[in-house]
Amino acid sequence: MSGSPSRVYVARLAGLPVYDPNGDQVGKVRDVVVMLRQGTQPPRVLGLVVEVFTRRRIFLPMTRVTSVDAGHVITTGLVNMRRFEQRATEVLVLGELLDRTVTINETGTTAVVFDMAMEQWRTRDWVMSKVAVRESSKRFRRRGQSHVLDWTDVSGFAQVEEGQGATHILAAFDSMKPADLAGVLHELSPKRRKEIAAALNDERLADVLEELPEDDQVEILAGLDTERAADVLEEMSPDDAADLIAELPTETAERLLTLMEPDEAEDVRRLLTYEERTAGGLMTSEPVILPADATVADALAHVRNAELSPALAAMIYVCRPPLETPTGRFIGVGHIQRLLREPPSELVSAVLDTDLDGLRPDDSLHVVSKYLATYNLVAAPVLDDEGRLLGAVTVDDVLDHLLPDDWRESGPQEVDRHAP
Questions:
Q1: Long-range contacts made by residues 341-344, C-beta under 8 angstroms, separation at least 24?
Q2: Which segments constitute the CBS domain (predicted)?
Q3: pLDDT averaged per 10 residues, the chain (length 420)
């Protein structure tokens, strides 16, 4: 591995692309796996956790890594695709060791780990040789001194720390999309999930929760105080919040709904009245709704909202007032692709698709999926018997229910990850 630097800081590895010898990307680095050893011996680096394109996390032994540098990792062509399962003797550096409170042996002062460095010895083994720490500051709002120390100069990694922070692991994963950060959380221990969830702001945590399996969602929400849990639910899209609340005990669900803002709670309560695998149970109550006198420029300004999913941003819904669901009479939909071809001053009412008969809230999942496929749509309106818009079903929510319950975790089965 002559092309590798002698020392590599782990936080800088997070998200780096991993390439095979032909230059094709295999995946991205998500963590480093080490084995702690007795005494003062530095931990041995066993390998990397790599996320491949199916969002599956696999184990890449360091013996399969031919080069590590600031911009990428190169591996041999032999990559085992079996899902990574952490063993009892293994520790994740980013997931478990960053933000640990340790003691600097020489001074006895405490410090927080914000990075670690690994290097390759002459034996060709990789070890975790350096620990970057920041001392606890005794002055108000002042940062303590930072040090890069040998592994033997600090102690405290062997103890379980309650209330471990998450500032530095979140900094390492700051650029991750919510779905990717959800994948990281899913692989961690319940203790670490709880600590990281506590450190995320409400909006970021809501986005991540929407991408997690239901069991993880319920576990994380239960670990929050009730008022914060209600705040996070308010930040979730109403359909996802309704799905999560439906998994909670009735008493807990009602308490959270009571603490939510009345308008937000009303949307969720309405969605909870529908069966799960129906158009009403699948829909969001917050599509982009505009009046008939809105212009194309107005429509395009609304769909630029970064919080909209691509499917929701693909279509606007034009209705008579009121414009909150359930709306006044539904008039038609505007396809963004069509609106992009029109002058900004044109009224959306002049370019509407009025031929779509919307879905009904009790339409089954089969009917909904067939409707989207028949009309080549990524979203569709849901109307009541009076022709009022209740919400919109998007293809991503349909796929969530068509795929197996464990689709976020499952993948092709391969041979043992430690096989040669």
A1: 342/296, 343/296, 344/295, 344/296, 344/297, 344/300
A2: 352-410
A3: 69 92 92 90 95 87 88 86 91 95 93 95 89 79 82 90 90 89 91 94 96 94 96 95 95 97 95 94 95 97 91 96 96 96 96 93 96 96 97 93 67 40
Residue 142 sits in a domain whose CATH number is 2.30.30
- Which one-letter amino acid corresponds to residue 265? A
**Cβ neighbours around 404 below 10 Å, total:** 8
Domain for residue 310, yes or no? yes
Q: Where are the alpha helices (DSSP H) in 173-261?
A: 178-187, 190-199, 202-209, 214-222, 226-235, 238-245, 250-259
For residues 102 and 137, membership in a common domain is answered with yes
371: left (phi over 0), alpha (psi -120 to 50) or beta: alpha
Cα separation, 249 vs 234, in Å, equals 18
In this structure, what is the dihedral angle of CA atoms 253, 254, 260, 263, given to the nearest 10 degrees? 110
Tokens 């919080």 belong to which residue? 307
> Residue 326 belongs to what domain range?
289-402
Question: Residues 81, 101: one domain?
Answer: no
pTM of the shown model: 0.83
Residue 346 CA, distance from chain mean position: 39
- Asked if 57 and 30 touch (Cβ cutoff 8 Å), the reply is yes
In a domain, 270, yes or no: yes
The C-alpha atoms of residue 83 and residue 417 are separated, in whole angstroms, by 8
Q: Cβ(99)–Cβ(168) under 8 Å?
A: yes
Radius of gyration for the chain, computed over Cα atoms and rounded to the nearest angstrom: 25
